[in-house]
């Protein structure tokens, strides 16, 4: 699972952690609803997650496009706007659950959060 945050928003550490957590929980729930077979393998291999950062929303949109093209589940976290950013701001892009070997071609060059 990859959790990609928008660096340009300059979210606090706490806000970044919460946005990534929202994405992780929503991805797992999405996978359970779809009964994805890859979920069992991801769970068995330790439920790996990685938090990454990109500079802009455009970069996140490109990552989304590339992930969808490879059949990897994606979702956006849009903030409610109660604290640091305006309502509806896309803060995090979640990919997976998927194995590192599936995500690396898309996210392998991104810096860690």
Explain what the structure shows.
The protein is α+β, with helices and mostly antiparallel strands and 113 residues long. It is built from four helices and four strands, in the order E-H-H-E-H-E-E-H. The chain has a four-stranded mixed β-sheet with strand order 2-1-4-3, with helices on both faces. It has a single domain, classed as Bit1 (3-Layer(aba) Sandwich), CATH 3.40.1490.10.
Summarize the structure.
The protein is an alpha+beta fold and 113 residues long.
Question: In what order do the strands lie side by side in the largest sheet?
Answer: 2-1-4-3
Mean pLDDT, as a whole number? 94
CATH architecture: 3-Layer(aba) Sandwich
- The figure for the number of domains is 1
Could you give the count of β-strands? 4
* Rg, Å, rounded: 13 Å
Task: Enumerate how many helices there are, as a single number.
Answer: 4
The CATH topology comes to Bit1
CATH C-level class: Alpha Beta
Output the structural class. alpha+beta
| Full CATH superfamily name | Bit1
User: β content, as a range?
Assistant: 15-25%
